[in-house]
Amino acid sequence: MSSGTETFEFQAEARQLLQLMVHSIYSNKDIFLRELISNASDALDKLRLAAFADKDLAVDTSDLHIDLEIDPEARTLTVRDNGIGMSRDEVIILIGTIAKSGTAELMQKIKESKDAAGSQELIGQFGVGFYSSFMVADKVTLLTRRAGEATATRWESDGGATYVIETVDDAAQGTAVTLHLRPEDKDDQLFDYTAGWKIREIVKRYSDFIAWPIRMAVERTDNDGNTTSEIQTLNSMKALWARSKDDVKEDEYKEFYRHLSHDWSDPLEIIHMRAEGTFEYESLLFIPSRAPFDLFTRSAKRGVQLYVKRVFIMDDCQELMPEYLRFVKGVVDAQDLSLNISREILQQDRHIQLMRRRLVKKVLSTVKDIMASDAERYQTFWSEFGRAVKEGLLDDHDNQKTILDISSFASTRDPEELTTLAQYVERMKEGQTEIYYSTGESRSTIENSPHLEAFRAKGYEVLLLTDPVDEMWVQSVQDYDGKRFQSIAKGQVDLDTDEEKANAGPEREQQEKDFAELLSWMAGQLGENVKEVRLSSRLTTSPACIVGDAHDMTPTLEKMYRAMGQEMPTVKRILELNPTHPLVTGLREAHGQRKEDVAVAETAELLYGMALLAEGGELSDPARFTRLLADRLARTL
């Protein structure tokens, strides 16, 4: 028997909204099953809570579950739960969410929003995700009976202008949604949802960690051709992150990591955390033991998955982990988030930012703990991911100090072992106020650079920075522990003590007078390439070197910007001469005796080219340099 049949007409705005949801909001039609299973899971949660709160509620909670039923001949798919169910009034309110008054305002909000996000209060309501069914079905029937009530309600619509609601007797407690499926259309990414393998695939991807069993009848054919049907549970229900750390074995963590990352190595570190309070979430993160092959490619994806109440929302959740920690794998499961209607796009709200900040701080503090307790594991981490982590020095100003704390660098102190900045500062010479560094393509290039001579002679340790990102972050990071970073290839170098300055003062003044004419002449001769020629205090054995002003861009950084397609003005640099080198003193004497001799001008040009090559630079005219050098060598034979 049935009674109380009513036909409702969708308002014009509601029809527009329905079309928008079906054709625009959801980018993947498989999502419909995730939404229906999520609704069913919510109904089971609510029943368990209701039974706990109302001891007089006559319900059986011993076998709460979700059933999926396929009928290939009728082309139907039914999602059934034995949860809380709905009354007739609730069906009208919840299923009619997009049909009730106020949809015009909601439509306007959606149109105005760039990401098609609706009002936050709609998220998670039954009616919103439920309507995704019309992406794959040309008719949807819902049969539901609320726990504790005697009669049920049937709702049915073809997604057109109307829907029908009627009261029905003799229906099971809970809710059953039956989809009358559209024909398969691969061109429109519409699959055959009566295929058991396809249903299993969707459940495994989106609903594997739902807390309730998701069951489906699966047919088996034996060797004799006999077909039998058995009920299988499709989801694992093993949400490790929702369990206490004490209840999870290490092998389970490792197995989950392999499933998540497709990496057959064990993770370097496991981070299992739970945040409670006004905003709750659980997370299970992994630091791999080796870098993925695509870590430094543009197509590299971040490895954190987002769940909301154990329902999979998205892979590669960029909002939860910054670019420089893109190698971190894992899942984050929030109790509530401001998603848009399709649950596919996150809003930039304080909850997202709060989770991101906490997760980043936890990852960095974990690395710091590894650094303090296990040098070998830290070395593995830094060798695999150090280049990526240093990218955070450019844009994560909140954690810049922590990133510097966990960073290691090559230095002139040891040819093999790296040093931390804290160790460097602890070893600084008395009176030293700056952290000296040099950048270059390789350690050997820097070690053979003339810029190092005075630092090596006086025993100053210099950091050797060879990663491309080093050229960038040293421009933006001002200091560490109050010690300013100073490039040994920029500005003036003054390593002498007060006593040494006093003793060398008269000699230095005399050198400035003796070389003044030569310096002025060379500045004119090399004016196209250098902005100044001056005497050097950083050279001990080389005749000359090229340095930049304190705030000049380095040649390597200039080259990097040009490689990225950015036009950069050529930066002229400074040529420094060693006043004690025989070549420089000989050039001064030759210039004093025969200023107009072309050979003297060529020697000055060769001296500049040698200084440029000594630092690993590129000659603007290699052929001319080679010709001048060959002619000069021929005259010596």
Automatic annotation (TrEMBL):
<dbReference type="Pfam" id="PF13589">
    <property type="entry name" value="HATPase_c_3"/>
</dbReference>
<comment type="similarity">
    <text>Belongs to the heat shock protein 90 family.</text>
</comment>
<keyword id="KW-0963">Cytoplasm</keyword>
<keyword id="KW-0143">Chaperone</keyword>
<comment type="subunit">
    <text>Homodimer.</text>
</comment>
<feature type="domain" description="Histidine kinase/HSP90-like ATPase">
    <location>
        <begin position="28"/>
        <end position="185"/>
    </location>
</feature>
<keyword id="KW-0346">Stress response</keyword>
<dbReference type="InterPro" id="IPR003594">
    <property type="entry name" value="HATPase_dom"/>
</dbReference>
<comment type="function">
    <text>Molecular chaperone. Has ATPase activity.</text>
</comment>
<dbReference type="InterPro" id="IPR020568">
    <property type="entry name" value="Ribosomal_Su5_D2-typ_SF"/>
</dbReference>
<feature type="region of interest" description="A; substrate-binding">
    <location>
        <begin position="1"/>
        <end position="343"/>
    </location>
</feature>
<feature type="region of interest" description="B">
    <location>
        <begin position="344"/>
        <end position="559"/>
    </location>
</feature>
<dbReference type="Pfam" id="PF00183">
    <property type="entry name" value="HSP90"/>
</dbReference>
<dbReference type="InterPro" id="IPR001404">
    <property type="entry name" value="Hsp90_fam"/>
</dbReference>
<dbReference type="InterPro" id="IPR036890">
    <property type="entry name" value="HATPase_C_sf"/>
</dbReference>
<dbReference type="InterPro" id="IPR037196">
    <property type="entry name" value="HSP90_C"/>
</dbReference>
<feature type="region of interest" description="C">
    <location>
        <begin position="560"/>
        <end position="637"/>
    </location>
</feature>
<protein>
    <recommendedName>
        <fullName>Chaperone protein HtpG</fullName>
    </recommendedName>
</protein>
<keyword id="KW-0547">Nucleotide-binding</keyword>
<dbReference type="InterPro" id="IPR020575">
    <property type="entry name" value="Hsp90_N"/>
</dbReference>
<dbReference type="InterPro" id="IPR019805">
    <property type="entry name" value="Heat_shock_protein_90_CS"/>
</dbReference>
<keyword id="KW-0067">ATP-binding</keyword>
